[in-house]
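FIELD: query
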Amino acid sequence: MQFSTLNESSLHKSLKIIYSEIYDGQTEVKKYNHVYDIITKKGNAIEIQTKNLSKLLPKIYDTIQKGHNIKLVHPVILENTIELYDSQNNLLSKRKSPKKQNIYSIFKELTGIYEVLLNRHFSLEIVYIKMTETRMRTLENVQSQNKRRRFKKNWIKTNKRLEEIIETKHFNSKDDYLKLLPELPDTFSSKDLEEKIGKKNNPNLILWVFAHMNIIKHVESQGRKKFYRII
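FIELD: result
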């Protein structure tokens, strides 16, 4: 059964088309009281989610409990071009965003789904992409559609467009996730991790996720510093 999609970005649509072709699946399929982005011929599910991964947790659990596999595809934006248009769709400016993501950017999202990351019916696929974000100039300063702006601005986002898929990374097992850790001492702290990947990549958050996944464990504390070991 096919369903129309509202407020879906071009980025999401493009990834959905690409993955439906790769896995020879149907898009927008209603099953188990959910609408899935893709259902493959084998009855497995694929979900494309650009943010707020935790919103998918009920759907993920329902799918797993039914004995089906579910793949979550999540893009990481390595390069973002911002195009600004006026209300008549005339291009006003075009520039590269200084904000860049990397593989460690996913951990903020993984805090909401750590419970299922190692489930044998679940897999995570990270897609490194280049994209274009389009914006429209407004006459007055306005709040964003998701109401998250601290200060109003004179533009709103109108779309996200996929430009290029650079690489994909697959996460199915404990070892796949542990490959994200650099070489560390047998017993290590967030400071040890910070020295290898940098503070901006939030080593404390990475260790929090890994500890809650039970692939590392807290073994001792020295003052406020916690030390961990890979299980």
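FIELD: remark
The two ends are 45 Å apart (CA to CA).
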